Amino acid sequence: MSTNRTDVRRLAQRGSNDRNAAYEILDAAMVAHIGIVDEGFPVVIPMLCARDGDHVLLHGSSKSRLMRNLAEGCNACVTVTLIDSLVLARSAFNHSANYRSLVVFGHARALRKLEEKRAALEKFVDHLVPGRSADARPGNAGELKATLIVAMPIDEFSVKARRGPPEDKKTDMDLQVWAGEMPVFTKFGSPIPAPELPGDADVPDYIKAMIPDR
Fold this sequence. Notes:
By secondary structure, this protein is of the alpha+beta class. The protein is built from five helices and ten strands; from the N terminus they run βαβββαβββααβββα. Strands 1, 2, 3, 4, 5, 6, 7, 8, 9 and 10 form a ten-stranded antiparallel β-sheet that branches.
């Protein structure tokens, strides 16, 4: 939904309200930054995130100031940024980055039922490591009680992205300076076993599948 808050004013051609693009950004992200106003002061906190349909899922301690505010339905802003490459121009001024970003405004709803919370936690685990929730012990009643989980609708949002090579001035094109794009990747390394792990506990296939160049 387009509103005054979601209209992209600076470089408006990079903005959109494409819902599928918003979903793709969230599905590729591990961390979101959550902004609220608490006691008259802005607070922005990084948190792990996941998507459940057309909602952003966030979770934390039931004693967390941020989570309590979100559960009470305060005004909130969720932002996600993915850096795809650094863009090196011939001039320092025109250096940039290729990126995809999402901003969501709205009010979150607290998940209260145990089964609803348990399903949301499985979403978190499988978002980070697909297939993991089938292996790990599910949260018990005490753990779920100590956890606040909120769902924020992806309704009032905007997507902004930059793609492509540097945009040099014509007067700089003959400079003998290398220009181009430097792709940025996030990769997983070799798994490090936890202390006291049983000797016959092999690394699961779904984890091996996440390791590049095996």
